[in-house]
């Protein structure tokens, strides 16, 4: 696991800086204790990272569950009661894994997965714009279009114009310049710049800037624009940051409903992320999805037992890991230990990191997920790829992740139906000879009820005094609905002077008396 430590260690540091504000922000957006987000990040990194079969996936608290958590805490009568649902949700996820439910991941179209990655990239950039300029009214990790502060994604950006912090903006611009320089130039010059990552340098400069400008009314950075990690005062105080489930609430039906909801949504988000990260993986490794559900289930049960938010595999952390050169699961595990060590040893230092610097880091992550060139590539792939892709992107930007994916998947299914409708048969019309129109219709390999309309339309358009040659030699599945159409058409064919010849693997038959009987015949066994 530590074979590629020179790749995984720098990547884990970048993931740590990406994960830290998101853990805190998602906890704040969920109405949960701030420390619960850090617990989820630590367990997602260390426990899920160790059990997972994913080489580059990183788990932690998920923005997609924030609304569910916020509602459930109020409905169930407190955070301790909610933790029971998290424990049960983890157990249900383990059952999903044992039932091999991970196969669902393979049924999402590539265009929708690419749309998901692009949509998340755009959302990251849009959501970080206010933080970049020092406007932090909405917590980090709130990815929904309608935000917890009452604004939406675009109105928040407009509001930020009136609350620009000069100090936060200045250090953000410097940090972004460092990140671009590091990525485009310095990392190609020397291995030293590959080992020491640009995000680490940007964060260190941010801390130094805060230290030297502290107290400056114009260029200083006030506390509300900094990371805010709970600071324990000794081990006893640290232990007091943990919460524990109230198992007396286990008889409440609402707890079980919430548990199933968490298990279902967390599993779907994880499977979507697994499919997306596997596509991003430059080494094209495949994650065992059932094992991933088991790992996530163990992680959620453990998180619930010690006061953490529910976890999923998360695309933002995972893509940051891939972009930073992470090779194995060691990077995810090390990032979890970094979260744990930093909370215990250096919480005061963490609270000196400007949020605007972390926004600059996320800008780069977002851009690499949503490169403009991808839109051109998808457009050139044809409308059947481009339309589901765009619908997914727009749906994610203007609603949330799961709704956007559902819209894209719905459009993808419609596209498949249209394609199936169009590809049910091939028609070849030969020249008219001796007053008879010769027409050959070749059916596809699989013809279902979806193709009824297209085939019926072609049959009705056949001219009188025609000779139809129906070739079904390549057809492996012919729906009974199609056979009934042919049966009904046979009576019309007689009145319109249309003769029909069927060519199949069973032989050649002209004007069969019963199409249903003909297609139900089985080839005779040969000695």
Automatic annotation (TrEMBL):
Entry keyword annotation includes tRNA processing: no
Residue runs in coiled coils: none
Transmembrane regions listed in the UniProt entry: 9-28, 34-51, 163-182, 194-212, 255-274, 337-366, 386-418
GO biological process: transmembrane transport
Compartments, record wording: Membrane
GO CC, any one term: membrane
Membrane topology summary: Multi-pass membrane protein
Keywords on record: Membrane, Transmembrane, Transmembrane helix
InterPro entries attached to this UniProt entry: SLC26A/SulP_dom, SLC26A/SulP_fam
The protein's name in its UniProt record: SulP family inorganic anion transporter
Species this protein is from: Flagellimonas olearia
Species classification: Bacteria, Pseudomonadati, Bacteroidota, Flavobacteriia, Flavobacteriales
């Amino acid at each position: 696991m530590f074979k590629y430590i020179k790749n995984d260690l720098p990547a884990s540091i970048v993931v740590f800086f990406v994960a830290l504000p998101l853990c805190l922000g998602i906890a704040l957006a969920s109405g949960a204790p701030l420390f619960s987000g850090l617990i989820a990040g630590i367990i997602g990194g260390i426990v899920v990272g160790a059990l997972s079969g994913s080489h580059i996936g990183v788990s932690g608290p998920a923005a997609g569950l924030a609304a569910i958590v916020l509602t459930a805490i109020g409905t169930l009568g407190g955070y301790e009661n909610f933790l029971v649902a998290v424990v049960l949700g983890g157990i249900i996820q383990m059952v999903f894994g044992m039932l091999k439910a991970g196969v669902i991941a393979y049924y999402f179209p590539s265009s929708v997965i690419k749309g998901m990655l692009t949509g998340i990239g755009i959302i990251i950039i849009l959501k970080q714009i206010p933080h970049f300029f020092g406007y932090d009214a909405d917590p980090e990790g709130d990815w929904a279009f309608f935000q917890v502060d009452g604004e939406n994604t675009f109105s928040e950006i407009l509001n930020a114009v009136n609350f620009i912090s000069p100090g936060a903006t200045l250090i953000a611009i410097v940090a972004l310049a460092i990140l671009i320089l590091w990525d485009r130039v310095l990392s190609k010059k020397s291995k030293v710049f590959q080992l020491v990552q640009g995000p680490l340098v940007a964060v260190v400069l941010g801390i130094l800037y805060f230290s030297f400008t502290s107290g400056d009314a114009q260029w200083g950075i006030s506390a509300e624009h900094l990371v805010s990690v709970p600071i324990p005062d000794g081990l006893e105080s640290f232990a007091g940051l943990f919460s524990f489930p109230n198992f007396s609430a286990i008889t409440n039906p609402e707890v079980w409903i919430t548990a199933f909801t968490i298990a279902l949504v967390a599993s779907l988000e994880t499977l979507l992320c697994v499919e997306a990260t596997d596509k991003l993986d430059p080494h094209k490794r495949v994650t065992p999805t059932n094992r991933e559900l088991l790992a996530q289930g163990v992680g959620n049960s453990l998180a619930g037992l010690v006061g953490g938010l529910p976890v999923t595999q998360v695309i933002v952390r995972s893509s940051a890991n891939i972009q930073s050169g992470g090779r194995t699961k060691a990077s995810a595990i090390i990032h979890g230990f970094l979260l744990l060590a930093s909370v215990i040893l250096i919480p005061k230092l963490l609270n000196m990191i400007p949020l605007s610097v972390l926004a600059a880091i996320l800008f780069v992550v977002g851009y690499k997920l949503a490169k403009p060139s991808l839109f051109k590539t998808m457009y050139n792939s044809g409308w059947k790829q481009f339309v589901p892709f765009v619908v997914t992107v727009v749906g994610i930007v203007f609603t949330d992740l799961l709704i956007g994916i559902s819209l894209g998947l719905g459009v993808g299914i419609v596209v498949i139906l249209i394609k199936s409708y169009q590809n049910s048969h091939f028609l070849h019309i030969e020249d008219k000879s001796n007053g008879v129109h010769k027409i050959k219709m070749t059916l596809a390999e699989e013809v279902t009820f979806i193709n009824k309309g297209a085939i019926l339309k072609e049959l009705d358009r056949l001219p009188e005094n025609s000779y139809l040659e129906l070739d079904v030699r390549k057809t492996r599945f012919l729906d009974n609905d199609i056979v009934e159409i042919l049966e009904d058409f046979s009576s019309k064919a007689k009145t319109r002077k249309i003769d029909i010849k069927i060519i199949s693997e069973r032989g050649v038959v002209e004007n069969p008396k019963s199409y249903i009987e003909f297609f139900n015949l089985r080839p005779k066994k040969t000695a």
